[in-house]
Amino acid sequence: MDSIFCPACQASRALKGYRVNRYRCAECGYDFKRCTGCQALYPLSEYGANRWRCTDCLNSYKRGCRKERADDRVVHYRTYTAGYYQANRERIIAKQAALTLASRMTVLRHYGGDPPACACCGEATVEFLTIDHINGNGGQHRKELGGLGQGRAFYRWIIRNLFPSALRVLCFNCNCARGLYGYCPHEASVPSTGS
Fold first, then answer.
1. Could you tell me which residues are beta bridge partners of residue 129?
2. Where are the beta strands (DSSP E) in 146-193?
3. Separation between Cα atoms, residue 72 and residue 63, nearest integer Å
4. pLDDT tens across 20-54, in order?
5. Could you state, in order of their start, the residue ranges of all structural domains in the chain?
6. How far apart are CA 72 and CA 24, in angstroms?
């Protein structure tokens, strides 16, 4: 271990032209470190094994440095991602579309069989199929989910929540008819109009 001198010994040695070392006073055995921030001498007990700043200087350094680094990261991230997106736009859009289709097909196959089909009329054209809330509370559920209530985010939510039983596959026509009229024309029992 290198030697360092306490303030009193250091002053007397400086007058004699001795070199000031680190960690321990060679004459009295006093352990201390010099803060690289404020240059003050503190007992070794106030420092961690690898710290070179006192607590006040360290906290000040962290606050300033953390803010500078955060600002630099934000600027770098925005410029990098904007440039990356512009350079790879078509590839990114194709990849996102493929991920959305894969998530959608996973959900449709789970609820509608393989190949997926409408639970009401049997329509099997995938482009026409939608997810229906059996209890008719789809609007309320979408509000609860916030931004996760539509598109790929909704399919991912369904998969993450282990395919809740309150959903099913319907074609768009059957789903809209149930939402607007409360029943589907494909059903055998159509409610009377009361006229």
1. 171
2. 167-171
3. 14
4. 434 555 566 566 676 766 767 766 666 655 666 67
5. 94-181
6. 40
Query: Which tokens sit at 137?
Result: 């509370």
| Residue that the structure tokens 């250091």 belong to | 10
How far is it, in rounded angstroms, from Cα 49 to Cα 63? 21
What is the longest distance spanned by two Cα atoms in the chain? Answer: 115
SS3 92: helix
Secondary structure (DSSP) of 38-58? T--EEEGGGS-TT--S-HHHH
pLDDT in tens, 115-168: 999 999 999 999 999 999 988 888 888 888 887 767 888 899 899 999 999 999
Q: Torsion-angle region of residue 179: left (phi > 0), alpha (psi -120 to 50) or beta?
A: alpha
The alpha carbon of 9 is separated from its chain's Cα centroid by a whole number of angstroms, namely 55
- The one-letter code for the residue type at 109 is R
Task: Give every CB contact of residue 10 below 8 A, 6+ residues apart in sequence.
Answer: 4, 20, 25
**pTM across the whole model:** 0.56
Residue 82 identity (one-letter amino acid): A
* Residue indicated by tokens 């440095």: 65
